[in-house]
Structures are given as C-alpha cells and as structure tokens.
Amino acid sequence: MLMLGASSTLGGVNFITTVFTMRAPGVTWMKMPLFTWSVFISVFMLFMSLPALIVGVAFLMFDHTIGTTFFVAGGDPLLFQHLFWFFGHPEVYVVIVPAFGIVSEVLATSARRSIFGYKSMVFAMAGIGIVGFIVWGHHMLTSGMDPFWRALFMIMTMLVAIPTGAKIFNWLATLWGGSLVMKTHTLWSLGFLVTFTLGGISGMFFPVAGLDIHFHDSYFVVAHFHYVFIGGTVFALFSAVYYWYPKATGRKLNETLGLYHFLIGFASYNAAFWPMHALGIMGMPRRTHTYTIESGFAEYNMAVSTFAFIFGISQLLLVWNILYSARRGEPVGKDPWGGWSLEWSTTSPPPTPSFHDIPTQIDKNEEFGHHKHDGPTLKEKLWTAETKGAEE
After folding, report:
1. Among 10, 175, 182, 241, which has the highest number of CB atoms less than 10 A from its own CB?
2. What SS3 state is found at 218?
3. What pLDDT does 109 receive?
C-alpha cells in the first residue's frame, strides 16, 4: 500500500508537469479542453490527499510491528478515521471529476456548439477540488464529534451542491441551445446526467446530522454511492469508449449494438440500484451477513441481485462490439464526430508520433469543429413539436 501510494503520487506529478510544460502553441489555460482540465484537477487532488493515507498506513504498520500506540489504547483510534477520510473523500472526486470532463466534451460535440459557460465549468470543477479537502468530517458525524465542528462540516459539505449544480445547468444549457446529434456516446452522457443528478440529490441527506444518524452505514448510502459512481463514472467511461474508439482504431463501434447496450444497461442499472434507497429507509445495514424474511428485505434484495446480474451481462454487448468493430467496423476519417480538440486533427488511428508537426489550437469561440451542423436547436425542435401539438 505504501508503494502504491508513492507511485500514484509520482504519477500525479507527471500529469501536472505535462499540463504545465507541454501544452501546444495557442493552448492557454482557458483554451484547454475540459477533459484536460478535469484530469489536471483530479491528479492534483490525488497528489495532495495521498500523503495522508501513506502516513495513516505507516502508523498502522508501526502499531502492529514495533508496538507504537498511534491508533490503539493510549493513542487516538479516531485519528485513523481522520487520516483515512482526509484521503478518502477527495478520492471520491478524483474518480468522478474526469467523468465531468468526458461528458462536457461529448455533449458539446453532440450538440454542435461549444460548452455553455466554459470558465464557470473550470471554476466549478476546481471548486469541487478545493471543497473536497474540507468536508471529510461529514463521514464522522456519528462518532461523537463536537457540535461546533459537526455544524461546520455540515455547512461545508452542503457547499458542494453549488459547483455541482452549476455544471448540471451548463450541460443542460449546452443541449438547449445546440442541435443535438443522437449517437451512442450521446445517450450514455445523457444517462449520466439523469443518474448523477439523482445521486447528487440523495447525497444531500447526509450532510444533515439529524438525517445522517439514521442513514449512516445503511443501504441508503450504498444506493447513493452506486448512483454517483456507476451512474456517474462508469456511464461516462462508456460514453468515452464510444466517443474515442474511432480515434484509437480508425473504425466506428456498431451503433445498433451500442443502442441495445445502452437500453439494457440503463434500465437494469436503475432497476438494480433504485430499490437500495428503500432498503436503507427500512433500516437494512450497509454490512450484514444475513437477514430474516420478516424484515421485508428479501424481495428488494432479490430485485437488486437479479437486475445487477442483468446489468453485468449487458456489458458483454460492449465487449462483443469492440471485438467485432475492430475488424468489421465502419472506417472513419480523422474527425467522425466534428470535434474541435487537437486529437481530431490527426489521422485515425494516430501515427507515431501523433503529430509530425507541433499543432496549434483553434479558437473554440470562433470556430467549433471542422464541419459545423446547421440544423435546428433542441429548443427549436421542442417548440415546433409543441406548436404542432397545439394546432392538432
């Protein structure tokens, strides 16, 4: 674990140094792709939080091997929780922030316009990165914390909703003012919007100490975690696979298989993890080896297990799609989606090295993409449909 923490810290330094020193000409800080921003913020958080875990693991090892008393009688057992959660809560954002960048890239390209509120998106992701380091205490509201610190951590944790809400607003505004082209990567990003929003709403119960006393270590926490991590990170990862696979291989993934993958995966995912909220409200502990039939947990757990199995099996469609399309997928040019970031200006797949000459960045505010789509915006489509319905 110590070696893993050290290697991850050094890896974070590598990413940070790359972003600082190796940007292409014209790529200023406020012209970087949002995915690059998200990775930069993510690895910076990793770099800052991992030392706490390394120290905690080292102290734990000393307690077991040389008889120190950092976390045992004579020391402070809660100290380990503080060290762990100082790492553990930023780690949650380390995983989810890159998903924000992926979804921003995909939705902007699919909507045929630049992302709405680019600077506010950057500041929102950076704000989450900062707030993530001052809210670890909300994991310990039931540990007998002083009321002053409990109230402070409650307020700090609720602040996370501000940059999160700003991002969701910007994504919706991007779709509203754009002409949406529906592809499989678009569907997964839209699915991300739905599930991540639901997960964020369920997460707002935990900063309230009175509610957290009841929900802490219950299946409600498990439901929230899965909605944010699978509905957030994994859905964004699926979107990234469908979006960048043509760039990596020179061939598109099959859209029909992709549609079935999305429909089965999205439906079974919600059917599996939504009942966990009910289990948590009913009082099912987060960690339990058994339960009685009379508790009423059995039916919900059967549904959870069944649909979770279906969700897992549905991923075979993605595996088959990747293998099938690697040889029989539709060949594509360098920019099949009309993206604007630099990777779309080289061939698909990229040569070695990726660019024979140092590329320059186009101005995203003046020229979006290489073949702009001039169709109606989503707002215009909805207005037309509403007008036709009223006339009929």
Report:
1. 175
2. strand
3. 92
HSE-up of residue 42 (Cα within 13 Å, Cβ side): 21
State how far the Cα of 118 lies from the Cα of 351, in Å rounded to an integer. 31
Give the CA-trace dihedral at 317, 323, 324, 329, to 10 degrees.
110
pLDDT tens digits, one per residue of 81-103 = 889 999 989 988 999 999 999 99
- Single out the residue of 113, 93, 116 nearest to residue 168, CA to CA: 116
Distances, alpha carbon 316 to alpha carbons 226, 234, 268, in Å: 20, 15, 14
pLDDT in tens, 133-166: 999 988 888 888 888 998 999 999 999 999 999 9
DSSP for 300-336 reads HHHHHHHHHHHHHHHHHHHHHHHHHHHHHSPB--S-S
Strand, helix or coil for residue 130 = helix
> In this structure, what token pair is assigned to residue 386?
């509403």
Which single residue is written with the structure tokens 């039931």?
A: 142
| Distances from the Cα of 267 to the Cα of 89, 178, 191, 361, angstroms | 29, 27, 10, 40
C-alpha to C-alpha distance for 116 and 170, rounded to whole angstroms: 5
CA distance linking residue 37 with residue 35, whole number of Å: 5
The domain made up of 2-350+360-378 is a member of CATH 3.30.70.3280? no
Q: Would you call 55 exposed, middle or buried from its count of C-beta atoms within 10 A (0-12, 13-18, 19+)?
A: middle
358 touches 166 (CB < 8 A)? no
Which 8-state DSSP code applies to residue 360?
A: -
Give the bridge partners for 331, in sequence order.
Answer: 251
**Which amino acid is it at 348?**
S
Distance of CA 342 to the CA centre of its chain: 23
Quote the Cα angle for 268-272-273, to 5°: 125
Q: Is 241 strand, coil or helix? A: helix
pTM: 0.89
Reported as type and span, the H/E element at residue 221 is: helix 219-228
